[in-house]
Amino acid sequence: QSVSARKKSLKHLEPCRRLVLYYHDLLFDGVNVANATSATAVNETKLGNFKLGKLVIFDDPVTENSHLLSPPVARAQGFYFYDMKTEYNAWFAYTLVFNSTENKGTLNIMGADLMAADTRDFSVVGGTGDFFMSRGIATITTEDAQGIKYFRLKMDIKLYECY
Amino acid sequence: QSVSARKKSLKHLEPCRRLVLYYHDLLFDGVNVANATSATAVNETKLGNFKLGKLVIFDDPVTENSHLLSPPVARAQGFYFYDMKTEYNAWFAYTLVFNSTENKGTLNIMGADLMAADTRDFSVVGGTGDFFMSRGIATITTEDAQGIKYFRLKMDIKLYECY
Amino acid sequence: QSVSARKKSLKHLEPCRRLVLYYHDLLFDGVNVANATSATAVNETKLGNFKLGKLVIFDDPVTENSHLLSPPVARAQGFYFYDMKTEYNAWFAYTLVFNSTENKGTLNIMGADLMAADTRDFSVVGGTGDFFMSRGIATITTEDAQGIKYFRLKMDIKLYECY
């Protein structure tokens, strides 16, 4: 006899924990050392005109409201790269590192950034510390994009597995 | 008193969902802009003769049968790199992006591509949309490899956690 | 009516499986082809003085005791990169590939390496083979660091989901 794998209903499933956070990416342009929080580590290739191949490594501030200069409650450490030849599209993997009075620990996140969509979902694949063993979904919205120098993402993080 | 962690039997465990899909990688050679779906973003190092360090970024078509030109049911967006000095071996992380009438959503996948083995297993570490919170195993087989220009992987995706 | 997501107590939670392993990274310096097990694929950027942007790809031996030359019980295949402009800090994603009489299969791991902390936690986000569908935490300690050429990490791997 076989054991059936875990199958649950997704209807009306409520998160066991939810955080709305803002990710600010300030790209290094060769001069802005004091302000920049990310840098291009790999240059784009010649496949298409949408930066395919460009890889950016970041240690970006994460805030509880949308203001870049409000006090960060976490850092987002990881990378993204552009991956499409016919439009802008990116792929992300990163860790949210919390070190505030409220939260200590990390959330590990990855997913495709389908930039043409109003919102897109990354997977929260693990957590540590106060987020021990968490899993969930981070729904991403681009809130601001000033050329290549600055962009801001709203992350609506819904955890569905909490310990 | 301690709470024991979740321990389940793996004997005869049946997937709650299964998909067999084909991944086609057509590498950019500097000329084939129209056909190529991936590009070398980082060149190989001089450690060994098996391309260690070469990193390829892709937005590859994924089909339900093995034919490259059959209509894609998903895109595979992510990267792989070669990582061994004594033989060919790679490491993958990517998102399957489904946007068909049948499925909308993503599966996030990562793992070591032990190319010498007939089959190898990647982890499906998360999912979104129709694959909300899914986890499982993707068993990979190389079906075709034409030099460095084209290769095809069969992905036998077995989900064991479904919501 | 809504279904509440899984919420468990983390108090006194015991791992269902535990492994203590040692990761040895021997970086290629252009000459040590015979010994090196990792290589710099991407050079550091000019943002700060802590190698931000440097990306290393590895196929490193993993042993059961701290000696570099003791027989490996696994390989660690993946990459790390430096990501901070004000101090040394890294980000890792890799697969532990087991191929011993005791264990066959893989564990997939990712997380922020907060090098200033005595210990830091990565997420074990999936497993295959003998580690089928496993999840857990890998607590990392730097045990030795000889310049940029060699470092050793102790990995205390605690699995809390076992099948």
Can you walk me through this structure?
The first copy, chain A, has 163 residues and is mainly beta. Chain A contains no helices and eleven strands. Chain A has an eight-stranded antiparallel beta barrel with strand order 3-5-6-7-8-9-10-11. Chain A is globular, with a radius of gyration of 17 Å. Chains in contact: A-B, A-C, B-C. At the A-B interface, strand 1, strand 8, strand 9 and strand 10 of A face strand 4, strand 5, strand 6, strand 7 and strand 8 of B. Strand 1 of chain B pairs parallel with strand 3 of chain C, so a sheet runs across the interface.
Assign the structural class of chain A, choosing from mainly alpha, mainly beta, alpha/beta, alpha+beta, or little secondary structure: mainly beta
Low-confidence stretches of chain A: none
State the oligomer: homotrimer
| Gross geometry of chain A | globular
The beta-strand count of chain A equals 11
Radius of gyration of chain A: 17 Å
Biggest β-sheet of chain A, characterized? 8 strands, antiparallel, barrel
- The amount of beta strand of chain A, in percent, is over 45%
Number of helical regions of chain A: 0
Task: Give the integer mean of the pLDDT values of chain A.
Answer: 94
Following the backbone from N to C, one meets helices and strands of chain A in this order, namely: EEEEEEEEEEE
Helix proportion of chain A: under 10%
Measured by residues with Cβ under 8 Å of the partner chain's Cβ, the largest interface is:
A-B, 43 and 44 residues
